[in-house]
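your task:
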Amino acid sequence: MKTEYILEGLDCANCAAKISDKIAKLDGFNEVNLNFATKTLTVKSELSENVVFDKVVKTVNSIEDGVTVKKESENETSSGNDKRKFLIDGITISAAAVMCALTLIPGINAIAKAVIIAAALIISGYDIIWAALKNIVKFNIEEKVLLVIAVTAAFIIGEYYEAVIVMILFKLGEMFEDISTNRSRREIEALADIRPDKADVIMPDGSVQTHNAENVGIGDIIAVKPYERIPLDGYIIEGTTTLDSSALTGESLPIEASENTEVMSGMLNCGGFIKVKVTKSYGQSAASRIIEMVKESAANKGRTDKFITRFAKVYTPIVVIAAALLCVVPSLIFGNFVSWLQKALVLLVASCPCALVISIPLGFFAASGAASKSGILIKGGKFVEKLAKARAVVFDKTGTLTTGKLSVGKVNTADGFLERDILRYAAVTDKYSSHPAAKAIINKYTHDYGDVPEGHEYMETPGHGAAAVIDGKKVLCGSAKWMLKNGCDISDLPPASVYVSADGRVIGSIEISDTVREESAQTIKELKDFGIRHTAMLSGDSDKACASVAKECALDEYSASLMPEQKVEKLTKIKADYGTTIFVGDGINDAPVLAAADAGAAMGLGSDAAIESADIVLVSDSPAQLPKALKICKRAMGVIKFNIVFALAVKALVFILVPFGLANMWMAVVADVGVSILSVLNATRILRFGK
């Protein structure tokens, strides 16, 4: 059972990592993923829902105080709560600043100053102090505990102003960090706005009733008014309009639509009133699948993300030990324990890994979000990394580099058979096949001669061809390789995509033609401009057809007449020769090679098998989106790596300065929350890469 919870009030990224780690270790929890960017906890467990909820609540409360666990269905917008929190924080910071100013009035004695400063300290940081006290009781030593210890120590030794200024700075930093993080969250959550949750259903009596979209069934008729988003997939049965599909595909040009035009949920109706017959349920609609893929992308963490998580676990105890040694060892040698204690506290406050723990996962999630705005679904950070360092791209031919709209060209005959006989045998044999070439043959026969007759003993071998018994003859219709495998001599016929045999004798062949997509050649050029060293095409079609496409697209390599398992073998060799390899294809036959690639890209939302096996989905069904995906991922990885280097460099600088007394507490606060704010803002820039 899969359950999602919203952790309201979860503001500490380091604590989020601890929560995820602790819940994952509980008995009965099979898979746990906590997405700090959206505060969403996803749990897969065989336990009952109530037991899972109770265990989650207990674990969260043991680590982080003030976090409320809600089921996703109970979640409401928290923007109002955020505004109230920021208002209260602003008032308390202002009050503390005013009280500090009062102590500068001439005539106020030392005791009065100490009392006013203490009051300012408590007013400005009451929530931090309270949270720290609770965490001390739980033996959870985190940044707020370290800050309160440091501020208390400063106050005790008479550094009143430093104590309160550090608290105010920390509070300000925390407030700006919340603002920047929440802004990025809202931008990511806005992706879900493409799916309306209501639909106007036209009832049998002609009346219109508004229903929850998830309750609308396949076959129902829905009404979509101008400038409304289409809530469910289907096709238009009445009306004409133009559709804006930019929320799904990133394509800004409108689409003309009329009766029988297929529509997807999330499209915006920019023209007239239309009626749509629903063909997919709410959960299987295009918008739902896109939203689900974006949400699940956080579960597939990249190597960088995993490294930061492991690094934070090792880094924190090392810093605590270093701070303890800095406090004890020099004081035993040089004396002045209080001074070395102060330095140790500065080191502890500066050491918090929040800048990394927040910004790196947020960066990967933002990359997936930016890509989705352009109609590119990337299923997690590890595939962002793969795209960024790709060195080879391999394509399928039909439906990928070509339009996939096959048509019958020349029909070659032999052994006294007529063209009509060849087409009839081929159409009957392929009657129940879903292969594009089979559909082209059937379309040609029905257009010229009418309905396709029935045969007997149908059989299809994927990648080879189909067989049937027609007029008492065993008929085969398929590739040249299959004919040779079955002992049929094809030497008397010119090369073609499909051959037809009857009772072991080849009686004809059919040439199938396809059109290269307009954008294919430009896509290959752009990929090479982005540093792709090798482009190739793997296809089950004839050498003649593949050679023509490869030449027109300026591919480096092509292989023809391949079975699905041979495609995998070829792809494996390309990976060995060139490094990280992307495969782009569509259809059920591409599922094995999509899974074998370092990252597999499926064209469109059509084939469930291909989408399940793929790591990237090009929603608009065009290879032209691939260079854009590479561009987004390369720039995102640049930002993520910069954040890592920047955060570690600032902390390293403070660490070097601390023993020499050149870094004080406010500098430690800047090294903590200041770096976090800048890193989060930098990661948020990734969301704009798709524009």
Notes: The first helix runs from residue 13 to 24.
